[in-house]
Amino acid sequence: MLAARDDCEIWCARHQTELATPDPRLHVIDLGLETDFDLQSLPAPLDLVVHFAAVTHAHDPDRYWKVNLRGTRRLAEAARARSCQRFVFVSTRCATAGAGA
Fold it and tell me: How many distinct structural domains can be found in the chain?
């Protein structure tokens, strides 16, 4: 459960997984890092973005770079365009030669 604060909205972008949203402050948008997207529908400024690069154990090595690197870079640029100053990035070590695809 989220901390009980009335001045807080959380916007969650999901890639391919369903997400339960029991808290009324949590808003879900669908976002695919492999395709073009923007964050213009989100209210600005964004205070914080927490991003989990999502591809692991892919059979196509290029997919790691397409999502975990290039998609993350585009997400960071889109967040910055919405005045975000804090971007937390969590990724996988499986995007190296011999780990995954």
Answer: 1
Residue 35 lies in a domain: yes
What stretch of H or E contains 43?
none
Cα–Cα dist 101/90, whole Å: 20
Backbone angles phi, psi at 11, to 5 degrees: -110, 120
Question: In the prediction, which pLDDT does 68 show?
Answer: 83
The tokens for 31 are 């976002």
Q: What is the largest CA-CA distance in the chain?
A: 47
- Domain span at residue 27 reads 10-90
**Dist CA 54 CA 7 (whole Å):** 29
Give Cα 3 to chain centroid, integer Å.
21
Asked if residue 100 is part of any domain, the answer here is no
Average pLDDT over residues 71-86: 90
Q: Report angle CA 63, 100, 69 to the nearest 5 degrees.
A: 35
- DSSP reduced 3-state for 67: helix
